[in-house]
């Protein structure tokens, strides 16, 4: 009997907390101007795709073409979404140039530690938009502090592969 009473109190407390959080969240949304919640410049799907395609071609056209060719027959919508959202909606925003966006992306993928193909793509992209090899190495080294040495070591291996491929192409 005591256990049922304790459980009832705990469940009641949890429900009251959830209701309070919900009301707080709802009231905090009312403080945000409607213009901040709406897109400033909504793009059509075609515009988003074209904007995204233009950006991805600046970052890593060859890598994009390889990815597209490997997936287009089984997942054409996935390819479209991968252009429209990250490149057409997010990377096309003002405020950061492509170099800074690639630095942020390489840092995030290094921290994830399990996205080597994407990391390779974005290290190539970072180099294509003006990062130096030394900046890539320093970026990954810094991530060892925040993401851990194993993840940073794996990212260094990917960076080495990218550098070696570029060296082969330049010969």
Report on this model:
The structure is a single chain. This protein is mainly α and 171 residues long. It folds into 2 domains: 40-94, no CATH class; 97-171, AhpD-like. 82% of the residues lie in helices and 0% in strands. It contains 8 helices and no strands. α5 packs across α7. The longest helix is centred in the N-terminal third of the chain and has 29 residues, at 2-30. It is extended.
Helix content: over 70%
Integer average pLDDT: 83
- CATH architectural group of the largest domain: Up-down Bundle
Report the sheet with the most strands, covering strand number, pairing sense and barrel closure.
none
Oligomer: single chain
Domain unit count: 2
For the CA atoms, what is the radius of gyration? 22 Å
Q: How large is the share of residues in beta strands?
A: under 5%
| Structural class by SSE content | mainly alpha
Kindly report the name of the CATH homologous superfamily of the largest domain.
AhpD-like
Low-pLDDT ranges: 36-42
What is the element string, with H for helices and E for strands?
HHHHHHHH
The CATH class of the largest domain is Mainly Alpha
CATH fold topology of the largest domain: AhpD-like
Key descriptive features of the protein:
AhpD-like, 2 domains, 171 residues, mainly alpha, 0% strand, 8 helices
Write the layout of secondary structure elements.
Layout: H1 2-30, H2 34-37, H3 45-71, H4 76-91, H5 98-112, H6 116-128, H7 133-147, H8 149-170
Structure summary:
The protein has two domains: 40-94, no CATH class; 97-171, Up-down Bundle (AhpD-like).
